[in-house]
Amino acid sequence: MITIASLIVFLAFYTLYYTSKRAALSYDLGFEKWMKNNPKQTKITGLGLLLTAYAFWLFTQSLGCGTLMFFIQLMTIGSLIIILTPLKKVSSKALLALFVIVALLEIYYN
User: Fold this and answer.
1) For 23, which DSSP code?
2) Are the C-beta atoms of residues 81 and 14 closer than 8 Å to each other?
3) 3-state secondary structure 33-82
4) What confidence score (pLDDT) does residue 69 get?
5) Distance of CA 95 to CAs 2, 33, 98, 108, Å?
6) CA angle 64, 70, 71 (to 5 degrees)
7) Residue 69: which residues within 8 A CB-CB, separation 6 or more?
8) Please, what's the b/e burial string for 16-54 (b: 16 or more CB within 10 A of its CB; e: otherwise)?
9) Tens digits of per-residue pLDDT, 84-97?
10) CB 58: neighbour CB atoms within 10 A?
């Protein structure tokens, strides 16, 4: 469940990052062009995903711990996206592999 919340936070911040006018953007995938051309729908989607991720954190943790972990995760993932996306170090295959490994570790240790 925590891995799913992490994935949702990543997707939410990534969609909100692509609505920025100051960010150095690359259009390797088709949905990135759509996000840049439709900023209002992208912002609504990103905020909805953030609320969903926060609800997942509240469901898995208590109110205080879930809120703290959500904001720590949001800051960490946001910083990584801002740093690594202009360097083109964020690829879909690497992210998929990372999240599969983390999900397997979460299932194994629970």
Assistant:
1) S
2) yes
3) HHHHHCHHHHHHHHHHHHHHHHHHHHHHCCHHHHHHHHHHHHHHHHHHHH
4) 93
5) 16, 20, 5, 20
6) 95
7) 57, 61
8) bbbbeeeeebeeeeeeeeebbeeeeebeebbeebbebbb
9) 888 877 777 888 89
10) 16
Residue 69 burial (CB count, 10 A): 16
Find out whether 74 and 47 touch, Cβ atoms under 8 Å. no
How high is the pLDDT of residue 27?
63
Instruction: Confirm if 42 and 11 have CB atoms less than 8 A apart.
Output: no
> Which pair of tokens denotes residue 67?
């809120």
Q: Is the confidence at residue 44, as pLDDT, over 80?
A: yes
Residue 86, helix vs strand vs coil: coil
Angle, alpha carbons 90-15-9 (nearest 5°): 80
Single out the residue of 72, 76, 81 nearest to residue 15, CA to CA.
81
Structure tokens at 49: 């995903």
Give the DSSP H or E segment for 18: none
